[in-house]
Amino acid sequence: MKLTYEDLQMLDGKQGEARRRAMEGLVQLGEAFGAEDMVSIGYAHVHPGMAMYAQDVELLEELVDLGAQVVVPTTANVTNVDTENWRQTGAPESLARVHMRGVRAHKALGCVSAMTCTPYWAGHWPTWNMHMTSIESGVTVFCNSVLGARSNRDGFFSVYAALTGRYPRFGYHLDENRVGTHLVTVEASLHNTTDFSCLGYHLGPLVGTGVPVFTGFARPPSLDELDALGAGLATTGGVSMFIVPGITPPYNSTEQAMAGAPAPVELRVGGSDIDRVYGSFSSAPPGSRVDFVHIGCPHASLQEMKEYAALLSGRTVHPDVEMWITTSGAVKAMSDREGLISTLTDAGARVITDTCPMSCHFALTTSPDPGIVLPEPRIRRMVVDSAKQAKYTRDMIRCQTLLTTTAAAVATATSGRLVARGGPAG
């Protein structure tokens, strides 16, 4: 790789051991993927240090001990515990204590401890052509596809990039990889974020690691719908970027998105394809009793919080149902100023930050470090409004998981019985 003088200074340890380790790791990454040189990044969304695994937190603490500091604006991804109200989620104290060590380590490194999978809703909005790095697949696909930033799907290398401000030039940092591979004609009627999440969920296996180009939308999708689409694509596929001409910078046409070449693969999505995704999470009939309802995956935006408050206003969550609304701490603070939090909590919903059901102590598929004993989740039947959350809840919590729209999920929470898509108030 061609390294600058500054890169070599870091690699030689002239800027401290932490940056030496970071640059060494980035050089190895670049060589593995055939990168010719490095790019300068303007933003990083990094590994949070998962509280369930003490070694994750210890890695961050070790960097702190070495005097490490991030050199670009940096946020941390969703983790295992609600920092402010961990008791209301039933998290064990041992888990909360490890989590707070991780929060302190991030602050010492200079990170914003956003602990969210949607940092853009919290004001971290990388701009067109900005090189960045992200541990979270949903952040990668949103920033590439909606904002026009440049990011790969990264692991702990995102931390190394934040410490150096550098990243190997490969993948979606190169123009030649930001070209459509599949032309997708949408013939289905899509009405809400859940529908868009199902669209992405359906297409993920068909597109794989490609770049789908969308046409046929009846109207321009909202930002929340684009977020849900990307999350669905990244859940069942390896998608890091999609293109909606006229929305994704700088593409104004399908021809431009395909770099003037014929579409290698053409796909059509009809209403029956969306129905099948809903159907794959419909193992209980409408009217079935439920005990848990979750909305806010990916972490809710302020606009979604307004929608939830409008749906819950004047209603009460059924006493047999626990309802979680998950968002970032920043969006929660903005929602509080708008008077939304009191509406939600007065209705009986719990507003949770920093974590979500699939990332918290509910997950049966985790093997936490000794000393952290996770309580057995007592969830029999969970209703969600996100295809992403439906898959991970079913796979990780291993409870019966049902998918419906946001309006129907709220109606389910207040009635205590499943309201299917298109049902009363759904």
3D architecture notes:
There is one protein chain. This protein has 426 residues and is an alpha/beta fold. It folds into 3 domains: 5-175, 2-Layer Sandwich (Aconitase, domain 3); 179-273, 3-Layer(aba) Sandwich (Aconitase, Domain 2); 281-415, Aconitase, domain 3 (2-Layer Sandwich), CATH 3.30.499.10. Helices cover 38% and strands 13% of the residues. The protein contains 15 helices and 13 strands. It has helices at residues 5-11, 17-32, 54-65, 93-109, 137-147, 157-164, 193-207, 223-236, 254-257, 271-280, 302-312, 329-337, 340-346, 387-397, 406-415, and strands at 38-40, 43-46, 74-76, 132-134, 166-168, 182-186, 212-215, 265-269, 292-300, 322-327, 350-353, 381-384, 400-403. Strands 11-10-9-12-13 form a 5-stranded parallel sheet, with helices on both faces. Helix 1 (5-11) packs across helix 2 (17-32). The radius of gyration is 22 Å and the shape is globular.
Main attributes of the structure:
alpha/beta; Aconitase, Domain 2; Aconitase, domain 3; 3 domains; five-stranded parallel β-sheet; 15 helices
